[in-house]
Amino acid sequence: MNGSAGTRPGLEAGTGLEPLVGVIAESPVARRMVEILVRDCVTVVGWAETAGDLAAACLDSQPHVVVLSWDGASSDGAAAMRVISSAMPRTRMVVVLREQRRSAIRSALRAGADGAVVERELGLTLAVVVRAVWLGQASIPLSARVELGDQTLSAREREVLELVSQGLTNSAVATRLCLAQSTVKSHLAAAFSKLGVHSREEAAALMREHRRGSHFEGAMSADSVADVVKGGAV
Asked: What letter does residue 216 receive in the DSSP assignment?
């Protein structure tokens, strides 16, 4: 079922002083989101259950921000975001998560989300985050900030990753640094966990990307590269 401006209860014409918002979620959740946004004087121009239907639902009013149910609107939230990015390249995106999971937040940010809201906190945070994203700010739950980062790599972990990115095996790295292979493996496991990667190839790609962007100056943190790595456990 799709919604469009002027055809669904609670959808109002924009005034130009507030963001125009589109919603992608299954019907019960979508209606709740619309009610919350309208209650907080945010203009909702349309809603749909799939990303592909949202453009038609919004008619001629392209939203400034799309609110997407990351878990419910599609079996693949990232794919839904790609559809929106292609159809509405200037639209920013806020994802709604059923639970605050580090992996889900990382995945949403990598896919291009500008903000994240946990479903149980919709009433308090949805309109605030939508406005922040509309104004060009990124917004995630404060508690997730602790989970996502400030996990700075140690000097030895960076050293091991640098050699791995050059194609050296664990044995070669151990010889180069005068370490036991088990120690090299421990450093790699710790670094992979901090950076959210789960293979040597991803780590090497991350290192190359980071060198291009900042020449690997100073301490390297998980937050500084979250948009170029693939999440997951070691």
From this structure: T
According to DSSP, residue 152 is labeled P
Structure tokens of 108? 């949403």
**Domain identity same for 112 and 222:** no
pTM greater than 0.85: no
pLDDT score of 192: 82
Strands of 3-4's sheet in order across: 3-4, 43-48, 20-24, 65-69, 92-97, 115-118
Whole-angstrom distance, CA of residue 166 vs CA of residue 56: 49
Distance CA(209)–CA(13), nearest Å, equals: 44
Token representation of residue 102: 């580090």
Do 23 and 80 have their domain in common?
A: yes
CATH number of the CATH domain containing 171: 1.10.10.10
With beta carbons less than 8 A apart as the criterion, state whether 205 and 166 touch: no
Distance of alpha carbon 94 from alpha carbon 110, whole angstroms: 13
pLDDT in tens, 79-118: 888 889 888 888 999 999 988 777 778 778 878 899 999 9
pLDDT grade for 211, boundaries at 50, 70 and 90: low
